[in-house]
Specification:
By secondary structure, the chain is an alpha/beta fold. The protein is about 40% helix and about 20% strand.
C-alpha cells in the first residue's frame, strides 16, 4: 500500500549538525504498548539502513504525561540529535521538555499525535514535521463503517483516551462528521443529538489510556440493558489490549455482534485485535501503520539534521478491517 505524502518540501539552512558525524535519534511514544512498540521496531530498522545512526526508543511504561516529559528532558540533557514524540498533552510538553529541546537546538518532530492548534498558536514553532495517521480520516472511516451497517442511525457511545489528546479529538470529530453530514471546525465537534438518526447517549467516556479502565467502561455500558446502545466506538484499541478480559466481557453478546445488532468498532489492528475480529467478537477495526511511523520518523530526522529536503506532513496508510478480510489485514 502506497504512502500518502502531503507536504510542502522544505530545504533547511545548515543550522544543525554537519556531515561525517554519528547521530542518536529518539522515538518517544505516549507509553509502551503493542501499538507503539511497533514504531520502535520501525525506528530500529531505519537506523540500521543508515551509516552511524542509532535509534533510542524510550517511553513511559504506562500513560503518564509527567513521565513522558521527564524522559524527553533526560534525552535533551544527554544531547540526542533529534526527537520524535507522540504528544500526550500538548500544553504540558510544550511549556516544559519540548521548550528545552528547542532551546538546546535539537530538532523535534511528532508522530501519531501532533500538538493541538491552540498550543501551536501559543508557542509557534514546536515541531518541524508530523508523521502518522490522518486522524480525522480515521474517525471518518469509523463513521462510514457504521453507516454502511446501520444507515437508519442509532444510539452511540464513544470511548476515548485522554479528553485533551489532540489526535483522539480529531478522530471523534471525523466520526461525528461522517454520521451527521456536518463538518465541525473545532475538535472534537458537537455531541450528536438525532443527527441523521444518530444520537450519543453521553459525552465520550475517557479511559485515560488505561486498559483495565477501558474494559470496565465497555462492560458497564454494553451489558446494562437500560443503556440500549446500538453502537460502541473506541477511537483507540484500549479494551482489546487484554484479549482474555475482552473475550470474557463480550462473549455473552456474540450473537448480537455477529448479527450486527450491536456494533463494536475500534481503532488499530494488532494481531490480537484481528484475532478477536476473526472470532466475530468485534464488528470492524480501522488499522494504522505504527511501524511506518517509526521508520519514517528516523528518516525524516536524518534528513533534517543533514540539511536535506524533507516532508512536513506524511500521512501513513489506514486499513479497513472486517471479519471478512482479516487475512488481508494481517499482511
Amino acid at each position: 500500500m502506497r504512502l500518502i505524502l502531503i507536504s510542502t518540501l522544505i530545504s533547511l539552512l545548515p543550522i544543525f549538525s554537519v556531515q561525517g558525524e554519528s547521530y542518536k535519534f529518539a522515538i518517544v511514544p505516549k507509553y509502551h504498548s503493542t501499538f507503539f512498540d511497533q514504531s520502535g521496531k520501525g525506528c530500529r530498522f531505519a537506523a540500521s539502513t543508515l551509516d552511524d545512526v542509532e535509534c533510542i526508543y524510550r517511553g513511559p511504561l504506562t500513560a503518564d504525561v509527567r513521565n513522558q516529559d521527564k524522559i524527553i528532558t533526560e534525552l535533551v540533557e544527554q544531547g540526542v540529535d533529534g526527537i520524535a514524540v507522540a504528544v500526550s498533552n500538548s500544553e504540558f510538553l510544550a511549556r516544559s521538555s519540548i521548550s528545552k529541546a528547542i532551546a538546546a537546538g535539537i530538532p523535534v518532530i511528532t508522530f501519531d499525535s501532533d500538538f493541538d492548534q491552540a498550543t501551536v498558536q501559543k508557542y509557534k514553532q514546536l515541531s518541524l514535521a508530523y508523521i502518522g495517521t490522518d486522524n480525522f480520516a480515521l474517525g471518518y472511516a469509523l463513521g462510514e463503517q457504521l453507516l454502511s451497517l446501520r444507515p437508519e442511525g442509532g444510539r452511540l457511545l464513544i470511548q476515548t483516551g485522554r479528553p485533551d489528546a489532540a489526535n483522539l479529538n480529531l478522530r471523534i470529530m471525523g466520526l461525528r462528521s461522517a454520521l451527521s453530514g456536518i463538518n465541525d471546525q473545532i475538535p472534537p465537534g458537537k455531541v450528536l443529538n438525532n443527527k441523521l438518526g444518530w444520537s450519543e447517549i453521553r459525552t465520550p467516556i475517557p479511559s485515560y489510556d488505561k486498559t483495565e479502565r477501558a474494559i470496565k467502561q465497555l462492560e458497564s455500558k454494553i451489558l446494562t440493558k437500560s443503556n440500549k446502545i446500538d453502537a460502541f466506538v473506541s477511537v483507540g484499541g484500549w479494551p482489546q489490549n487484554d484479549i482474555n478480559e475482552y473475550r470474557r466481557v463480550v462473549h455473552p453478546l456474540a450473537d448480537e455482534i455477529r448479527g450486527n445488532k450491536l456494533l463494536l468498532l475500534f481503532a488499530n489492528s494488532s494481531d490480537q485485535q484481528l484475532t478477536l475480529l476473526s472470532e466475530h467478537l468485534a464488528t470492524a477495526n480501522i488499522g494504522q501503520s505504527p511501524y511506518e511511523m517509526g521508520r519514517l520518523a528516523i528518516l525524516t530526522l536524518y534528513k533534517i539534521i543533514t540539511n536535506q529536503p524533507y516532508d512536513q506532513i506524511i500521512y501513513t496508510p489506514l486499513k479497513h478491517c472486517t471479519p471478512q478480510n482479516v487475512d488481508y489485514c494481517r499482511k
